[in-house]
Design brief:
Mean pLDDT: 90
Structural class: mainly alpha
CATH class: Mainly Alpha
CATH topology: Farnesyl Diphosphate Synthase
Low-confidence stretches: none
Radius of gyration: 20 Å
Order of helices and strands: EEHHHHHEEHHHHHHHHHHHH
Strand order of the largest sheet: 1-2
Shape: globular
């Protein structure tokens, strides 16, 4: 049994292990090639997060989905590079919007070089992803464009907030389906499609990916509250400080509205205030960590992971399917 990929995914089949390891190594090489520029500074900025590491969650999904066809097909590795470049580009932009100071255990690009250069570096990565996509054919370009539209729409909806009368929790889950679920779904879709897998299999894996992506982001929401910076690679409570209401906060607001307990209402008021103050931020984080709303958010994470796992029942039993099932468990474990 060998551990590969994010979360310590254990692969018990030597052939699958070899394919995944070889594929991920090729993706790593492809990422470095794709982020090189004739301008040394651009190379440094573009490779800043590549070299910082990361889980390579999306490329792993491409490799596992490709097992349902020919994993050595020529489009598999380039499509994995595309989805990871796209993901990295969004991180540069997200850190600017969030005014984040740390990403993957290193100073964020905006903290190091300023907002303008961070945004432009993200744009550079999008351009390089598009260049690779052009060689994968018009269908791949269309799929990526649709996913990117959903991703940006999700970000806009998050910024705008729910319209009047809309349940904030349902609005937020819609945001996550776009912001995170869309690109994870494309990872699975590209892996299956590029490998020549059956169209029915490709559809199942795409639906699995979207649900797993939502579970993955919900686990991040929980970690942002529950973990320290050593575990998560970024500053805990970043979303709280920026006034972004993730699922634990939305579940707290829901409980406070339904039951009107004084301590819940007091915590909601604290969270709605100025959390740029370190003492207020620390108090809010500590109180939310022991609140039942955090446990409810964990249960939501489990539900989406279970939905993702249930999708896989339509696929033939094989080691790749078992690995995809284990990823569902791993996502839940992160939020545990």
């Amino acid at each position: 049994m060998t551990v590969v990929g994010p979360f310590g995914l254990s692969v018990r089949d030597q052939a699958l292990e070899a394919d995944v390891q070889t594929g991920l190594a090729a993706v790593e090489s492809g990422l470095l090639d794709a982020t090189k520029s004739e301008v040394p500074f651009i190379t440094e900025a573009a490779q800043h997060l590549v070299r910082a590491g990361g889980k390579r969650f999306r490329p792993l999904l491409v490799m596992l989905a490709a097992q349902f066809g020919d994993p050595d097909a020529p489009g598999v590795v380039p499509s994995a590079v595309v989805v990871e470049l796209t993901h990295l580009a969004t991180l540069y932009h997200d850190d600017v919007m969030d005014e984040a100071e740390v990403r993957r255990g290193v100073p964020s690009a905006n903290a190091r070089w300023g907002n303008s250069l961070a945004v432009l570096t993200g744009d550079f990565l999008f351009a390089r992803a598009s260049h690779i996509l052009a060689d994968l054919g018009p269908e791949a370009v269309r799929i990526q464009a649709e996913a990117f539209e959903r991703l940006v729409t999700g970000q806009i909806l998050e910024t705008a907030g729910p319209r009047d009368g809309r349940d904030p929790v349902e609005h937020y889950l819609d945001v996550l389906r776009g912001k995170t679920g869309s690109l994870v779904a494309v990872s699975c879709r590209f892996g299956a499609m590029m490998s020549g897998a059956d169209e029915r299999v490709t559809d199942v894996l795409t639906q699995y990916g979207e649900r797993l992506g939502v579970a993955f982001q919900l686990a991040d929401d929980v970690l942002d509250i529950a973990s320290d910076s050593h575990e998560s690679g970024k500053t805990p409570g970043t979303d709280l400080r920026e006034g972004i209401a993730t699922l634990p906060v939305l579940r707290l607001q829901e409980q406070a509205s339904a039951h009107g307990l004084p301590e819940d209402l007091e915590l909601v008021e604290l969270l709605a205030g100025d959390l740029t103050d370190d003492a207020r931020h620390a108090e809010a984080l500590a109180r939310l960590r022991v609140h039942s709303a955090l446990e409810q958010a964990r249960r939501d994470t489990v539900r989406y992971a279970q939905e993702a796992r249930a999708m896989l029942a339509a696929l033939p039993e094989c080691t790749a399917r078992a690995a995809l099932e284990e990823l569902c468990d791993a996502v839940v474990h992160r939020a545990g």
